[in-house]
Design a protein that fits this description.
Elements: H1 8-21, H2 46-58, H3 62-129, H4 136-166, H5 179-223, H6 225-231, H7 239-266, H8 271-279, H9 289-301, H10 317-320, H11 322-337, H12 341-347, H13 352-364, H14 367-374, H15 378-384, H16 392-413, E1 419-421, E2 434-436, E3 448-455, E4 457-459, E5 465-466, E6 468-474
Helix pairs in contact: 3-4, 5-7, 7-9, 7-16, 8-9, 9-13, 11-16, 13-16
Length: about 475
């Protein structure tokens, strides 16, 4: 068989046939309309290839989908993390601003507290300055200033407590020292100022009572001035003069008892209990304490009144030469009446009156009472050393002691000397011999008896009576 020559057309035909008989991969698309039967989609073999190619382009693989989802999730988490960090930063800035504001409020409050404490110190310094020299107007103004400053400090304390409760002031750091420890010195200073203020107030009250007693004594002198003129400089003592001196002695004793009661309160003692312990009188209320203290002071100062020297020595001059002894006592009475007791004892501390004052002071205040009321036993040490303290308290005591000493001198200058009597507890009340310290003596038969004796009475040679002072209670009752 003869070999048919292969032409270029044959080659082209073979290649075309091979391409049509083999399906192309999905990465290539063939669009050709050589044969008419390819127009039918159902019979066209390339229709599936075209559909698969489109599916390949539209639907990625499962791995790629997971990778895309992970990337999208990481982006969302990153955005959420950035947003949360921004919110936390805003909260930190707001808390820092709030803390700074609270710190500013606390600093301002503490500055006001320090200013208030300084104001209290200045006001108290002004109060001390008003005492020496004594200026009543400055005293009142300084006292009002101290009270105003203390009230301002109390308002600051309440403001701090309200602010701390509301959270406007930060709570103290546990590692820092407690606020109580920081404020404790100032509270101690305030307590000391209050105690000193109470002591000063007690002194003021005592000075007021002293002024009232001095006014009473001056009025008594004026009242008896015509009598003294009638008697002349060397006139004889009279029963009326003794009665006046007895009233002055009672006023001085009452003033000292009131001063002692104020000092007990200032020392923080419960007045009724302290009075019961000192006087052994069953006092049930602070209102009766002053009368019980008056009874105690009177009993101490008048102890041994029946003896010419209060039993301080064994002198019997009144028996050896009674007339000369009476004249001497009346001269001593007139000489000492115008003297200040502190001035006399400053010159003659161991004179008869000095020995009397020293003995009565130690009997009046036991050591434990002196330490509780006065803070120490310095008064007793000075007295036992033979001297006399230069303190307001001891000066008040000397005035009461001088009044009793003058009464004793005058009693032994009279002829006959007066006899003294005292109402016992539970005795019937007799108005002609007794007077009630409450100022309203009941009528006879009212069922009142003596609860305790406050001051003794005296019967004079001319028949006159200086009535005893008593505190009355219902029959069967207690003070």
């Amino acid at each position: 068989m003869a070999t048919k020559p292969v032409t270029v057309g044959d080659l082209i035909h073979r290649v075309a046939s091979s391409c049509l008989s083999n399906r192309l991969p999905c990465n290539y698309t063939l669009r050709d309309s050589v044969d008419s039967d390819l127009d039918d989609d159902d019979d066209d073999p390339f229709a599936d290839a075209v559909s698969s190619s489109e599916k390949c382009r539209r639907s990625p693989s499962a791995a790629e989908a997971e990778e895309i989802e992970e990337e999208e999730g990481e982006e969302e988490e990153e955005k959420l993390k950035i947003w949360e960090e921004g919110e936390q930063e805003k909260e930190r800035l707001a808390a820092a601003a709030k803390g700074a504001e609270r710190a500013r409020d606390a600093d301002a409050l503490m500055a006001e507290v320090f200013d208030a404490v300084s104001g209290v110190r200045r006001a108290y310094a002004a109060l001390q300055g008003a005492h020496c020299p004594w200026d009543p107007d400055k005293m009142r103004a300084a006292d009002a200033a101290v009270v105003a400053k203390l009230r301002h400090l109390a308002r600051l304390r309440d403001r701090f407590r309200r602010s701390a409760a509301a959270g406007h002031i930060p709570r103290p750091n546990p590692s820092a020292p407690p606020l109580r420890e920081a404020v404790a010195p100032y509270e101690a200073a305030l307590d000391d100022l209050q105690r000193q203020l109470q002591s000063k107030q007690a002194e003021v009250d005592g000075l007021k009572e002293k002024l009232a007693a001095a006014t009473s004594r001056r009025n008594g002198r004026h009242h008896h001035h015509p009598l003294s003129k009638q008697n002349g400089p060397g006139g004889a003592p009279t029963a009326e003069l003794f009665t006046s001196c007895a009233e002055q002695a009672r006023a001085a004793t009452l003033t000292f008892a009131g001063h002692l009661a104020h000092l007990m309160r200032a020392a923080g003692l419960e007045l009724a209990a302290a009075t019961r312990s000192l006087t052994k009188i069953p006092v049930s209320s602070p209102q009766l304490a002053k009368h019980a203290l008056e009874a105690h002071v009177t009993r101490a100062l008048l102890g041994g009144f029946e003896h010419e020297s209060f039993y301080l020595d064994g002198s019997l001059s009144s028996l050896l030469d009674p007339a000369a002894f009476r004249r001497e006592r009346y001269v001593q009475f007139r000489d000492m009446r115008g003297m200040e007791p502190a001035e006399l004892l400053g010159v003659l501390p161991t004179c008869a009156f000095g020995r009397y004052a020293a003995a009565k002071f130690t009997a009046l205040l036991p050591p434990r009472v002196e330490e509780a009321v006065l803070g120490d036993g310095e008064h007793r040490r000075v007295v036992n050393a033979g001297a006399h303290p230069r303190t307001p308290f001891y000066g008040e005591f000397l005035r009461a002691a001088k009044a009793m000493w003058l009464l004793h001198l005058l009693a032994f200058a009279l002829e006959p000397p007066p006899s003294h009597f005292e109402a016992g507890r539970g005795a019937e009340f007799h108005q002609e011999y007794m007077e009630s310290v409450t100022g309203a003596p009941p009528h006879a038969g009212a069922g009142m008896v003596v609860g305790f004796a406050v001051a003794p009475g005296f019967r004079l040679g001319n028949g006159a009576v200086v009535r005893a002072r008593v505190y009355l209670v219902p029959r069967g009752g207690r003070p």
